[in-house]
Amino acid sequence: QFNIIKYEDLKWDISLGQGSFTRIFKGYKTDIHKGEKQVTEVLLKELDVAHKNSWESFFEAASLMSQISHKHLLLVYGISVHGVKNIMVQEFVKYGALDLYLKRGRSVSVSWKLDVAKQLASALSFLEEKNIFHGNICAKNLLLAREGDPLQGSSPFIKLSDPGISVAMLGEDVILDRIPWVAPEVLEDPDNPTLECDKWSFGATVWEIFNNGNAPLRGWDLKLKRQFYEAFQQLPPSQWTELAELISQCMSYQPAFRPSCRSIIRQLNSLITSDYVILHATEPVTQ
Ligand SMILES: N#Cc1ccc(Nc2nc(N)cc(-n3cnc(CCO)c3)n2)cc1
């Protein structure tokens, strides 16, 4: 279900940090195209050797992304296995993870943030149509392909990354640490996630985008995080009531109460046209 890339055709460049249980590098892959050598810039995602027995789940995530194609879904070129090394070869997305981009203090406008939220909602709607569960929607897994420039009025462009190893494979502590992105019902039954779980994560991700990439419940330990769900708590609401309303609808503890993707997109569209956007063209960056 995806192509195997020869290890010899890959070249590693600088390390770019790590995801969960993976290390990422900038790299290059060489193809022979019509007798011509063609070098493509790629992102090499290596599964930690300690988790090599999760390789099926790691590649399962890759194959999910390569079976369907959508403008806001990351392109996965294929996989490569070399000894104990399991490598996913992805398109290199120019500006990297959105959470880091926002934390770097780029002051972006409210309409920039809404545009990104809408693109994520359309990716989610596409996955819903295909009845595909993602399972790891968060700002860290949104990759920025185009910055967008307010002066030229060009808008940002994001791509949703692969979900990585499924939480069910990773055990309770990892699930707890993913509070508040992981839906509460996943804690009860991690083996049967539903599409509604992705809507909860969408709510938490929109909260991140409007909080300049700062993680919600940052620094909370696993005990406190578990209590957050046990007490049916909600994230601190935005002072923009309509936005806070959308986020809390998505983060309903009752999965059935979460809005459909169509409703999410409709609500985002009405937020985009509201006068709040004009009044708050560029929020002062509050770190
Ligand atoms: N400075 C810088 C810089 C860093 C990275 C990229 N590009 C890129 N392309 C991808 N396909 C995936 C990622 N990526 C980033 N963090 C994760 C882990 C969480 O998913 C994945 N980054 C571009 C610029």
Q: Roughly how many Å is the radius of gyration?
A: 19 Å
What is the general shape?
Answer: globular
**Which bin fits the share of residues in helices?**
25-40%
Number of strands: 7
Mean pLDDT: 93
Largest sheet: 5 strands, antiparallel
Task: Briefly note the structural class of the backbone.
Answer: alpha+beta
Strand order, main sheet: write it out.
Answer: 1-2-3-5-4
SS field, number of helical segments: 11
Percentage of residues in strands: 15-25%
For the termini, the CA-CA separation is 44 Å
Q: Which stretches are low in confidence, meaning pLDDT under 50 for 5 or more residues running?
A: none
Order of helices and strands: EEEHEEHHEEHHHHHHHH
**Bound ligands:** the ligand N#Cc1ccc(Nc2nc(N)cc(-n3cnc(CCO)c3)n2)cc1
Structural notes for this entry:
This protein is of the alpha+beta class. Helix content is 37%, strand content 20%. The chain has eleven helices and seven strands. It has a five-stranded antiparallel sheet. The chain has a two-stranded antiparallel ribbon with strand order 6-7. The radius of gyration is 19 Å and the shape is globular. The model has no long low-confidence stretch (mean pLDDT 93). The site of ligand J9D has 17 residues, from strand 1 and strand 5.
